[in-house]
Design brief:
This protein has helices spanning about 5-10, 20-25, 45-50, 50-55, 60-70, 80-90, 105-110, 170-185, 200-210, 235-245, and strands spanning about 15-20, 40, 45, 95-100, 115, 120-125, 135, 160, 185-190, 210-215, 230. The chain is an alpha/beta fold and about 250 residues long. The protein has a six-stranded parallel β-sheet with strand order 5-4-1-9-10-11, sandwiched between helices. The chain has a three-stranded antiparallel β-sheet with strand order 7-6-8, with helices on one face. A two-stranded antiparallel sheet has the order 2-3.
Length: about 250
């Protein structure tokens, strides 16, 4: 499945950067809520994941995210998640940047994670002037019912700690990703077409810097013709094999 060159490059790598998207969680049964079929109560799901929707009807948006959490709660990491966590244990320096908000990488054991789009299991205050930091859903110190919940510090609406359409990524998360890419000598982009900025820049930056970029995705993408090697396979099937071949994992 993987070339000898890819395996040798991964074996020799001192610093590995992994970028993951929705495809990594697909094998766990995580729905995307996008495109056809992405309807909830006759609302297009993507129309609810916006600052405008929250400003207009925070209760409705909270109900939608409560529904999403209910779907995610019983789901478990799949072999792709566990393979990424295993890879982190076997290289000197490792960074995982994920576009997923489902928390499955952390459950699988990954440690150095940059959650580019946030985490659906965290909440934070929607007020730009409030100092209330994001905190895990289960640790929240204010009542989360009835909806919408209010911030215990300023009285503003709490919101899911995720990046909505039309919002900028957390500058600290983006800066940390760029620093890690500059230090990487092996880059894996998996389960994402990486068409949306700024994630789309990341594999291109690495490629232009001479880094070995390996793409794993069931279907060819715009990156497939650019990267060093592209493997058309699911992450759940390909990633365990990659780690096994590179590190003789039994």
């Amino acid at each position: 499945m993987f070339s000898r060159e890819a395996i040798a490059a991964l074996k020799a790598a001192r610093s590995v950067f992994v970028l993951t998207g929705a495809g990594v969680s697909a094998d766990s049964g995580v729905p995307t809520f996008r495109g056809t079929g992405g309807l909830w109560r006759n609302y297009q799901a993507t129309s609810l994941a916006t600052p405008k929707a929250f400003a207009n009807n925070p209760k409705l948006v909270w109900e939608f995210y409560s529904y999403r959490r209910k779907i995610l709660a019983p789901l478990k990491p799949n072999p792709g998640h566990f393979a990424i966590a295993s890879l982190e244990e076997r290289v000197s320096s490792f960074t995982l940047a994920t576009q997923n908000i489902d928390n499955l990488h952390r459950i699988a054991g990954s440690q150095n994670i940059i959650e580019l789009h946030g985490n659906i299991w965290e909440v934070r205050c929607s007020s730009s002037t409030c100092k209330n930091a994001a905190e895990p859903w289960e640790n929240c110190q204010v009542p989360l019912s009835p909806l919408p919940p209010l911030c215990g510090d300023c009285g503003g609406h709490l919101r899911p700690n995720v990046v909505w359409f039309g919002e900028m990524l957390n500058p600290a998360a983006l800066s940390a990703s760029m620093r890690a890419i500059q230090e990487a000598d092996f880059f894996i982009v998996v389960g994402t077409s990486a068409l949306v900025q700024p994630a789309s820049r990341m594999p291109l930056m690495a490629h232009e810097a001479g880094v070995f970029v390996l793409e794993i995705n069931p279907e060819p993408t715009e990156l497939s013709k650019i990267v060093k090697e592209s493997v058309q396979e699911t992450s759940g099937a390909a990633l365990p094999l990659l780690v096994e071949e590179a590190f003789a994992v039994q």
